[in-house]
Amino acid sequence: MDKTEKILWATSGVTLLQIMTGFYLSQISDAISSPVLIFHVFTAIILLVMAVASFLIVKSVVRLQHLAIVNTVLIIITIITGSGFIIFKSSGLYGEFMPYIQMLLSIGIISNYAVMLGIKRTLDMVQP
Fold first, then answer.
1. pTM for the whole structure
2. How much of the chain exceeds pLDDT 70, in percent?
3. How far apart are CA 52 and CA 42, in angstroms?
């Protein structure tokens, strides 16, 4: 396993951790004062750094570079929408509607990393 596969697997793992903590936060009544929120924000920052690192590692392969850009943008959009929970204090429609949007975005992120891993392994099989 080379460094590209390692970063793709690690980023997928952090994304899965984000999905699980985000789901937990959407199920409790006072997510704003939960210590899990601090962990969720911290891992979001780590995920963004890992997404940029994956872009820098895969930038020699155009297909992977495009997916890495899309993932980075998806992560930024997810961070912005997640910031709304802190700004609006999980009020009303935003607190009920936005977890579904965030879940769809995070599923897109993790599936893109799976596709990137598949493309990387396919390219490794083709090249001698």
1. 0.86
2. 94
3. 16
